[in-house]
Amino acid sequence: MMRLAVSAKSCLWSQILMGSRAITGNSTNGFASTVARIERRGVSAIHTFKAKAMRMDDDERRFPPQHQESQPGKEYLMNPLPQFSNPNYKPSGKLHGKVALVTGGDSGIGRSVCYHFAMEGATVAFTYVKGVEDIDANDTLRIINESKVKGLGDPIAIPTDLRYSANCKDVVDEVIAKYGRIDVLVNNPAVQYYVYSYSLEEVTEERIERIFRTNIFSYFFMTRHALEHMKEGSAIINTTSVLAYTAILPSWLEYISTKGAIVSFTRALALHLVEKKIRVNGVAPGPIWTPLQAAALNDEDIAIFGSQVPMDRAGQPYEVAPSYVFLASGQDSSYFTGQVLHPNGGVIVNG
């Protein structure tokens, strides 16, 4: 009779791969009872990971200790810097002549999306938080200018607070005044906070409102205003997360809730716009090394970041951005709407 070796990591993996479903029924090899014990031990497995992280030598850590005290995080302060570009990437004009608006495009996945869109021939506008992300925004403008196709429009960086509808309308109006249209909208901004006590008491009303306004309200607002200027063949791409499907980290409760909302928003909006022939899809990244992590995680979590997925490492932004290129390209993804791509390091989500 084969028996399964159960370790802290296998406990967590089982949580990831099987979600939170209860598994019942008889089994001849004891698998069902093993899984039941694993699921009950999900949170303790996470704590075991953290205890192990505290004992790691410097050369065993995935990333060095670091934590930024404010949201949103700043890419220029990270060690190592996230990798937005892949020297082996070969652009082929997939987005030539299109105008793309990327919210939260100053750093992380957003910066890589801006870079890849520019490489593929798009004219790019992106938003950032004024006074907080200025350095990252200036770096991204330089990156886009250096990589954009000659003869196309210059990129613009728009400082704003996307939590409020009026600000989102101002962003759209500025892009229309500059370029005359929007062909691709990428809804991307996000914040998350760590719940250290695993208690709902720590989740204040103010924090809930900030997270929901940033992570999902802005998606509604930007889409509503941009749609007035989007025509047949346009594309909307929403950034969700693998955690919308697995929800294994109780310390990110509000964040996970918003990412689940984004999945439902994407599916419903796709059906709402299908007759207008505007495609709506999403991308659900796994653990990607971005400023979001540096601003939300503590040293123990930074040490093991990426170890929760089968590929046993964190991804880089450049490994995610091509998913956005694919969904933005009418030639490549013309039969895709209401779908979500999963660059997540091997996590099976079946959704």
Automatic annotation (TrEMBL):
Cross-referenced Gene3D superfamilies: NAD(P)-binding Rossmann-like Domain (3.40.50.720)
Keywords, comma-separated and alphabetical: Oxidoreductase
Keyword Manganese (UniProt): no
Region described as Disordered: 58-82
Molecular functions (GO terms): oxidoreductase activity, acting on the CH-OH group of donors, NAD or NADP as acceptor
PANTHER family, per database record: GLUCOSE_RIBITOL DEHYDROGENASE-RELATED, NADPH-DEPENDENT ALDEHYDE REDUCTASE-LIKE PROTEIN, CHLOROPLASTIC-RELATED
Family to which the UniProt record says this protein belongs: Belongs to the short-chain dehydrogenases/reductases (SDR) family.
Record-given protein name: Putative glucose/ribitol dehydrogenase
Organism: Helianthus annuus
